[in-house]
Amino acid sequence: MSHIVECLSPWHGRLAHVCLSDAQRPQQSQGSQRPLRARSGNLIACLCALCGLCGLCARAGADEKPATTAPASIVVAGDGTGDYRGIQEAVNAVPAGNAQRIVIHIRPGMYRGQVVVPREKRFVSFLGEAADKTLITESWNLRTIGKNGQAIGVFGAATVIVLADDFEAENITFENGAGNRGQAPALSVSGDRAVFRRCNFMSWQDTLLLNQGRHYLDSCYICGSVDFIAGGATAFFEKCRMHCMTGGYITAASTPQDQAYGFVFSGCRITAEADRRNVYLGRPWRSFASVTFLRTDMPGSVDDAGWDNWRVPDREKTTRFAEYRSEGLGAHPSARVAWSKQLTDEQAKAITRESVLGGKDGWDPKPAGAATQPAAAANPGAGAANK
């Protein structure tokens, strides 16, 4: 039986119908990950296991040569016309302890294979020419078997894993093609101050897994069905589109109790497949989940109740779910669950990009960084491997 992921995206035929038969699904990972429990209650333990025990960082640098400096720009091209054919090779070329912005220009093409940006490789940017021409993809889910004979878990299944601080990506599509096979992130982020501009994130469940830190997403497209924006991070989504492939839950926040904000959506748009119903804005992965929608356009597919308690009534007392002036056929403030909030003008005015993301270091991601100009165009690579 084929498992079909249907996403409305610029990739048209390639990503509009990703059909993966059971025979095509990977049975082994390329690393030696230890099993990680999905939805673990101890995020820090999971992240330590991911980085220190499963060998992701070690594997990412396995082919790395000692280096003290690196060029400010690296070109990846699947056809061999760049510095490297694979994205992981380019990441490996970034020296540990890097303190300058290094832009990895990724020329058009499909790059298959997991990519890991280790914790010690800060200030890395992935820059494509257009998101509909530059695809990083893999098809692993939490039950994919690693070389040690054990399931890799949700934190090891992501197509791209970012453990470092100050990561940026622009004009890139991140895809996990596992389909409706359980948790299968397209991207997992565990660093701080990550920025994504004009990127696509495509999967079915846990598409965008933002574990911790502060992150900014501008004009991005996130496609999924179940909990497809998840995690305990603080993230500000500006002018983004969230596309629901079925009835399900857009967000699954696990915001810590002492964290002021979780996911904030400002001026965004929700869309859904035709005739879909029972779309919910979110459900609480953990008790103090925080999600806010500011002036977001919502289709009629959004359930009048808006939010779900994940069958844990006690979380209704602690979750922080809110809306402000939602628009469209799915905006029904008077019908929302009683334990969610409709913000006043004054309350909404205080929720800005700066107030949400600033933190103690006053971080403001809005100014464009070094990743602003694409490398010269090249013919699309033919399924280049990320080695």
Explain what this protein looks like in three dimensions:
With 387 residues, the protein is mainly beta. Helices cover 9% and strands 32% of the residues. It has six helices and 26 strands. The strands form three sheets. Strands 5, 6, 8, 9, 11, 12, 14, 15, 17, 19, 21, 22 and 26 form a 13-stranded parallel sheet that branches. An eleven-stranded parallel sheet has the order 3-4-7-10-13-16-18-20-23-24-25. Strands 1-2 form a two-stranded antiparallel sheet. Helix 4 links the parallel strand 3 and strand 4 (102-106). Residues 1-55, 62-68 and 369-383 have low confidence and may be disordered.
What's the gist of this structure?
The protein has helices at 13-16, 43-53, 56-60, 87-92, 345-349, 353-357, and strands at 2-5, 18-21, 73-76, 102-106, 109-112, 115-117, 124-128, 134-138, 160-162, 168-170, 173-176, 187-189, 194-197, 200-202, 208-210, 214-218, 221-231, 234-238, 241-253, 263-266, 269-272, 279-284, 290-294, 320-324, 341-342, 381-385. It has 387 residues and is mainly beta.
